[in-house]
Amino acid sequence: RAKEIKTKLGTLLQKPDSTIDLIIPYPEKPEKPAKAQKPSPEEALQWRDSLEKLLQNTYGLASFSSFLRSEFSEENVEFWVACEDYKKTKSPAKMVEKAKKIYEEFIQTEAPKEVNIDHFTKAMTMKNLVEPSVSSFDMAQKRIFALMEKDSLPRFVRSEFYQELIK
C-alpha cells in the first residue's frame, strides 16, 4: 500500500511532458514549482498540528492531494489551491475569468467538483462574484480550510503514507 502511494506521488511530482504542454494551452505562463523535496521527519511531524504548514510545503501539498485523490475527496484541496491562485491574479479581466471558472467547477449546484459549503456561504460567495475582487472566495475558502483541518487532516495523519514520512 505504501509503495502504491509512493508511486502515485512520484507520478504527481514529475514535470509535465512537453508534448502535453502543446496540447493543453495555458491561459497564462504557469509558475514553475520548486522541486519538491522530501521533508525531514521533524518537518512532516509539524503537519499534524498545522494544515497551513502542510499546504505551504510543496511536498506536503502533493502528498495531501494524492491522499485525498485516493479517497475520491480531492475537491476541497483543489478548491483551496484554485482560490490561492485566484488571489494572485492582478488583471481584472483574468480575475473575472478565473472567478467564473472556480464558481462553475466548485461552487454552483451540481458542479463537477462541488465543495460542501452551507447555503449562507454559497449565497455570500455568489453575491461577491457580482464584482469579483481578491476576497470574493475568502468565506468559502475559510469554510473549506476548516473542513479539511477537522476532517481530512486527521485521516491523512493516520494514513500509512504519512506514517512512513515521519519515520
UniProtKB/TrEMBL annotation:
The keyword Metal-binding belongs to this UniProt entry's keyword annotation: no
PROSITE patterns: RGS
Protein name: Regulator of G-protein signaling 5
Gene3D superfamilies named among the record's database cross-references: 1.10.196.10, Regulator of G-protein Signalling 4, domain 2
GO terms under biological process: negative regulation of signal transduction
InterPro entries: RGS (IPR016137), RGS_sf (IPR036305), RGS_subdom1/3 (IPR024066), RGS_subdomain_2 (IPR044926)
Annotated ranges, domain RGS: 50-166
Any one Pfam family match given in the protein's UniProt record, by short name: RGS
Key words of the record: Signal transduction inhibitor
Domain of life: Eukaryota
